[in-house]
Amino acid sequence: MSPRSRSARGRRAPASCAPWVRTRLRTAPGAAWALGLLVLLTAFLAAAFPRAVDRYEAEGLRHDIAVADPRLSVLELSAPQPDLQLDRTAREAAVRDAPLAAVYRQVLSGLPDVVRPDTAQSAYGFRTSEPIAAGETWLPRPYGIDPTLTYSTLPALRDHATLRAGTWPAVHGEVTTDGPGIEGAVTEETAKALRIKAGSVVSVPTQAGTPLTVRITGIVAPKRPEASYWSAQPLLRTPSLVPPPKDRTRFYWTAGVLLPPDAAPALLATAGQPEVFWRIAPDASRLAATDLPELRSSVASLEGGPGLVKLRAVAGSNAALRTDLDEILSGYDTLRTAIGPVVTVAAVGIGAVAAVVLLMTIGLLGARRRSELALLRSRGASLHGIAGRLLAETAVTAVPAAALGLLIAVLTVGEARLWPAVAAAAAVAVVVCAALPLRTALPHRRPQLHGARDDLMHARPSRPRTVAELTLLVLAVGAVVALRRRGTGGEGGSDLLVSAAPVLVGLIAALVLVRILPLPLRLASRSVARRRGAVGFLSLARAGRTSAGGTLPLLALLIALTTAAFGGSVLAGIGNARDDAAVRTTGADARIGGPGSSVALPDRLIREVEGAGGVREVARVQIEYGVPLPADGAGNARTKGATLVGVDPASYARLARATGLGAFPADRLKTSAPKGAGASDDRVLPVIASRSVAARLGDRPRDLSTAAGNFKVRVAGTVTRTPAVSDSDFLIVDAASLTRRQTTSLLVTGGSLDTKALRTAAHHAGKGVFVQLRSEARGAFVDTPMQRGAGAIYTAALAAGAGYALLAVLLSLLQTAPERTALLARLRTMGLTSRQGRRLLGLEAMPQALLAAVGGLFVGWATTALLAPGVDLLNLALSTGPGSGTLDTVPLRADPWSLTLPALGVVVLTAAVATVQAWWAGRRGPITELRSGDPR
Asked: What are the C-alpha distances in Å from 222 to residues 61, 228, 260, 400, 518?
């Protein structure tokens, strides 16, 4: 063999053709980048949703535990004092610091993994479970009753408090039950309330008769008074005035004294029923929502199950664990169960819109390559080969884009499970990679005739399509009925069919609108055909020749508009509910009241309030609580009294009408009976009553005995609520008819109230006069993490729905853009002006845009109205704030702005795109567009 032959064999043979994927990406880089960007955005949203839900649920769980009263959230293990049958030395040794600390460490190590302790705020010690009366004469006695003190040892006091006066309490030598005395400390609040100073001495009675001397050596200030170390037993931090068990008219002081840890044996001699305690503060910083079932099970086990048995093996057979953490977890679970299905409705809607837009994009890409694939098919290419090549070139773009979207979602939305986000992003990639080959290759199973018309005016739905549409109609009706009956918070949660109710309603509406669209087009075409000018006729003719498969753009717009309307109505409903609750809390823009219902406000205060800036009107109100009602017809007396509200009929009726709280005609309270102090007790006063009080009084006049006077009342009307009081049992009467008239509250209305002047006037009026503003009551409804997270998801749903709707409009116009451009070029050769070209393209695009806008407006309103009985926004709107209990339910109502703005946006965008396209086509010459052999 010659050297040339050997060198020729050694060289690689050149490839017969260029690689398909590289060639396609180089040929159409814009389409690849556009598809990749859309996949990235969709994958990001799909991956971010489960992570956002996980995050706000975890933050909600941590928030509920962190902000709960430490008395409820801590797990406190307690055991009685050592057995009295033990000798004194053994009993003293059992309560010293070292044995208690050893048990404390074993308790912490024996807790379930999900019950993580906050060791910095946990504590243990020995305390008197019953307060002990202190007889020192220098202690304050507001009602002549001796104050009581609770004595407790706490470890690491210096780490949790700052010494303000004196010295830290310490143990000198070994403390025993018969020792002469010990040292202690109190907080600043206790020292101020009980007049305790550094060096004060308190004698504690003992069972042996010799008092135990406790010398207060230090006054301390808690570093974190709200933390569990101090707030789990708040008496050690803050003294309190409490009434005796059987006497609620007198009060006495009760407080706590802090002892050093090794001073515990001295408490064995007291009669305060001493006990050992180990207090575990929960650490919720690493909890996730998925830990809830295990956490609830572990807490139940510690309270009365295998967990408690293990703790008793360490702390003693009589040890008991007390906590209300299970109630906190139950409340959190109730809120999550109520919020979750409502959020799922928004997620399903946005997911459906994204899926439709992806299918539209795939359809656009497939339509642009129909001729290319038909040529390959005519030259012997197999469907499998074509589909495989399409899958390869799609995967090269879609898979990295989906992975990048997943990465961005993981980086931006942290502290959540990874696998749901991975599954969501992978689902987006799989849908795109599978849909594009199938949608593009399957139409080439059989040879297709070029130029066959498939327009909207002549299309006739096939039987399979009719059956599919009827099936979807049945599913939509079933989903709506289920959601109306069961609600989003029904038993077992909300399944996917119920959550997809808005999507199914939008789908049915799209199918119906596509079927009825040819009718108005035919009617409009007939009327325009008889008029002069070709622009109107050509535009309607072009609109009628739109492909019969144009259901996807309309479906995307309708679902997007429906989801936007639903989400906007949810957000608006939350805001309206909080506004209503704030109004019911204050009754007006501002409320000014005194320290008690029987204390009259001074006239000077009333004049200053009426003259304050921004005040439009002041309604003077006299309120008397607990007015006894007469017995009913059967002689049954009512233990609960009603609230009497004396008002000026004219001003109060205007206030009730303005606030929407029980509007009534002012003349209903007018009476011809004598008024003032000399009026007879037999006079009959008309009253506006609540329904329960009206049912109690009946139709005839009834006697009432009140602090404002004795008189008869006759029900002149009923209302469910009234601005002056939040009670459900009330009577409204003309204040001028009362014998002893006074003003106890002022209800102020105005646009921009001078709150500083109102507070100054209230301050000068005396102690106890308060000013309550509606704006402050509204601001008190602070979003919890779960509410804030759900609101953020709905806001994102609105933004994503609007973005996908705009993208659907662009895709629908881009799909037929080459045909419209070529048509405009041909007509320009026939004398069509640029202005007429813009009108032609705009009018051609308007029918479907108007159909989508009007249909979306109607479908959004109908969907909200249909689903409203099954959606309660109470837990989303009100879980915090002073008026949380004023509303029993928060129904869903259609928000006009959420309905109209997206619909108008669709019309405006369609017109703008058509105008830009006409302008762009006008810049290019007709020769560029009208090339020989161009199928357009």
From this structure: 27, 11, 16, 56, 78
Instruction: Provide the 3-class DSSP secondary structure of residue 261.
Output: helix
- For residues 214 and 200, the answer to whether their CB atoms sit within 8 Å is no
Alpha-carbon torsion (820, 825, 827, 828), positive or negative: positive
Question: Which residue matches tokens 């200053």?
Answer: 608
3-class SS of residue 554: helix
Distance, C-alpha 254 to centroid of its chain:
41
Q: How far apart are CA 402 and CA 397, in angstroms?
A: 9
- Contact predicate 929/825, CB 8 Å: yes
Report which secondary-structure segment, H or E, holds 80: strand 75-80
Q: Give the pLDDT confidence score for residue 87 in this predicted structure.
A: 87
Note whether 519 and 823 are within 8 A (CB).
no
Residue pLDDT, tens place only, 293-304: 999 999 999 998
The beta-strand segments (E) located in 737-781 are: 745-749, 770-773
Question: What CA–CA distance (Å, rounded) separates 742 from 164?
Answer: 49
Are 307 and 115 in contact by the 8 Å Cβ rule? The answer is no
Q: What is the C-alpha to C-alpha distance for residues 406 and 413, in angstroms, rounded to an integer?
A: 10
854-863 mean pLDDT: 83
Continuous H helices in 203-284: 228-231
Q: How far is CA 35 from CA 40, 360, 436, 442, 697, in A?
A: 9, 11, 11, 20, 73
Write down the mean pLDDT value for the chain: 81
Helix, strand, coil in percent for the chain, rounding step 5: 55, 15, 30
Tell me how far apart the 2 most distant CA atoms of the chain are, in Å: 141
pLDDT tier for residue 680 given thresholds of 50, 70 and 90: low
The partner residues of 713 in beta bridges, in order of sequence, read: 685, 702
Pairing of β 684-689 and β 709-718 = parallel
Closest CA to 424 of 38, 790, 51: 51
In angstroms, rounded to a whole number, what is the distance separating the alpha carbons of residues 710 and 703? 7
Helix/strand/coil (H, E, C) string of 413-456?
Answer: CCCCCCHHHHHHHHHHHHHHHHHHHHHHHHHHCCCCCCCCCCEC
Looking at the predicted structure, is the pLDDT value of residue 524 above 70? no
Digit-coded pLDDT (tens) for 474-520: 777 777 777 666 655 555 445 666 677 778 777 777 777 777 776 77
CA-nearest of 303, 271, 783, 823 to 577 is 783
- As to burial, measured by CB atoms within 10 angstroms (0-12 exposed, 13-18 middle, 19+ buried), residue 673 is middle
With tokens 């101090």, the residue in question is 230
Nearest residue to 883 via CA among 582, 469, 612, 543? 582
Cβ atoms 905, 799 nearer than 8 A = no
Give the model's confidence band at 13: pLDDT under 50 very low, under 70 low, under 90 confident, else very high. Answer: very low
C-alpha dist (Å) from residue 875 to 337, 586, 737: 10, 21, 43
Identify residue 207 by its one-letter amino acid code.
Q
pLDDT for the residue numbered 598: 67
Q: Are residues 61 and 335 in contact, defined by beta-carbon separation less than 8 angstroms?
A: no
Q: Distance between CA atoms of 219 and 227, rounded to whole angstroms?
A: 19
For residue 637, give both structure tokens. Answer: 């007396």
End-to-end CA distance of the chain: 59
The pTM is what?
0.79
Token code pair at residue 670:
């007018």
Angle 618-623-627 from CA coordinates, rounded to 5°: 160
Q: Output Rg (C-alpha) for the chain, integer angstroms.
A: 39
Query: What amino acid is encoded at 204 in this protein?
Result: V
Residue 773 in 3-state DSSP?
Answer: strand
Strand partners, 79: 276
**Whole-angstrom distance, CA of residue 342 vs CA of residue 872:** 9
Pairing of strands 75-80, 252-259: unpaired
Check: CB of residue 403 under 8 Å from CB of residue 395: no
Q: Is 589 exposed, middle or buried (0-12, 13-18, 19+ CB in 10 A)?
A: buried
